[in-house]
Amino acid sequence: MTTFADLGLSADILKAIQDVGYTTPTPIQEQAIPYVLQMRDVLGCAQTGTGKTAGFVLPMLEILGAGRARARMPRSLILEPTRELAAQVAENFETYGKYHKLSMAKLTGGEAMDEQVKALDRGVDVLIATPGRMLDLFERGRIMLADIKILVIDEADRMLDMGFIPDIERIAGLLPPLRQTLFFSATMPPEIRKLADRFLNNPKTVTVAPPATTSIMITQKFVMLAQTNDWLKRETLRVLLRRDEVKNAFIFCNRKRDVAALHKSLTRHGFNVGALHGDMEQSERTATLDKFRKNEIALLVCSDVAARGLDIDAVSHVFNFDVPFHADDYVHRIGRTGRAGLEGAAYTLVTPDDAKQIAAIESLIKKTIPREVIEGLGEPRAESKKPPHRHHREDRFRDRAFKPRERSAPLSHPPHPPQSPLSPPVRAEASPAARSVSKSKESPVTSDRSVDDLPAFLRRAPLPGEKKGVAE
């Protein structure tokens, strides 16, 4: 049986490993560590939870042990897709490197940039970063990449899903061409294989398990629902949580708004539950994960931000409240349980609309997952009717005849008589004086009125045979 001492690691690293309680390396560690120590490029592919992180952390500590970092010039770079994964790799370096004097910095979004800049100014041996924050600080002139000797691209397939590949290509172009590159991924789709061929130079391929396989320690089930109904899904989840007496569990949703809604529902029904998604502040995300690790929170409703690389011991269950959009994400989600040789259970709630996704999952893992139907669920509560859309509301005035606003008539005139809306308007009787004035205005100009009395703009030239100023 191979031990860590057989892999060529130094006494300080072996002592740190012994302090943690590990004695035997995992298959990925056993195969990858010797090649990394030989300064070879490595393409590693192994299912989640098999110890890939230690597979590159331990030999990096050995290689970087001799040397000293200079200000703003890190000696190694590890790229991670999420802040949680970056934090977990940092924890590994702190655990296994406690007998070394290597410095480390973590560059991730959602944290103050000033502290990160101060760490870079002091000089770091190991730089752990997400691509966005890494490029941001580089463009500000805070990082120089000319001294990078080791580049690690971790969870490469997740980088592809999150759209980080253009950023990674740009970062790789900024690094020295003579470097060691370590490329690790849980799955190896064709796009990732092409990317590895571009970045790696004559790599040693280490494949421990077939790509996209699930652990035999995980009991998987598809829970079939009769209809696509959010209430029915929530009720089914509550039945499973109570029936299996769940100790702790990840509950995955596809959308961040569904995380918030499900968290609120479970809290209302008395469950000890927390929430985790990408829009939360980093301090809040870290505090929530710490509570889950310490069993202060039993259930963690989360998005796929928690699907990769989180190493939390003894998680008994994983629930897919939503079937993932991509089949690869199913493998990563359920990989949060059944770790370190422990048994786990994974339930996926399946509606009639999810037929295509579950077929893709079974095709990927090359396994038929058992189905289960839960009978006797109640009926949803009657919900109050929502008001109709404003475009469909009945116009209260549509069928009413228009009624003009009534105004009080002057005291000197009688009120207007009622009239039909279709009859012509009837004017009030005018006084004799008003009639005479009106008549005089409407009558033509006659000989008793001189043209000279008219305004200039009303006068006209006389027609032939017409006397000036008198109509003939």
Task: Write up what this structure looks like.
The protein has 472 residues and is α/β, with parallel strands linked by helices. It folds into 2 domains: 4-207, P-loop containing nucleotide triphosphate hydrolases (Rossmann fold), CATH 3.40.50.300; 218-372, P-loop containing nucleotide triphosphate hydrolases (Rossmann fold, 3-Layer(aba) Sandwich), CATH 3.40.50. The chain is built from 15 helices and 14 strands. The protein has helices at 11-20, 27-37, 52-64, 83-96, 113-122, 131-139, 156-161, 165-174, 190-199, 230-243, 256-268, 282-293, 327-334, 355-365, 432-442; strands at 42-45, 76-79, 104-107, 126-129, 150-153, 180-185, 204-207, 218-224, 249-252, 273-276, 299-302, 317-320, 344-350, 371-372. The strands form 2 sheets. It has a 7-stranded parallel sheet with strand order 3-4-2-5-6-1-7. A 7-stranded parallel sheet has the order 10-11-9-12-13-8-14, sandwiched between helices. Strand 12, helix 13 (327-334) and strand 13 (344-350) form a beta-alpha-beta unit. Helix 2 (27-37) packs parallel to helix 3 and helix 13 (327-334) crosses helix 14. The chain is globular and about 135 Å long. The N and C termini lie far apart (138 Å).
